[in-house]
Specification:
Elements (H helix, E strand, L loop, with lengths): L2 H12 L3 H10 L1 H6 L2 E2 L2 E2 L1 H14 L6
Antiparallel strand pairs: 1-2
């Protein structure tokens, strides 16, 4: 994904486009997974919490 494409997807996600948000979540899935681990063990609950928190707060992202 080029920088222009990323910026377009990010802007659409911030403005409420659920498809764009899904693309961002897929793009950042490895990092979300990484931060879903506690003491080296994967936590599905934490993973879900992170996804929900991103979805509920993406509109606050400054562009």
């Amino acid at each position: 994904m080029s920088n222009k494409e990323f910026e377009s997807v990010l802007r659409r996600a911030v403005h409420g486009d659920s498809i764009a948000l899904e693309k961002l979540l897929i793009l950042y899935e490895p990092m979300i997974y990484k931060y879903s681990c506690v003491k080296g063990k994967y936590s599905e609950d934490l993973h879900q919490w992170l996804l929900l928190d991103i979805a509920l707060n993406i509109h606050k992202f400054p562009i």
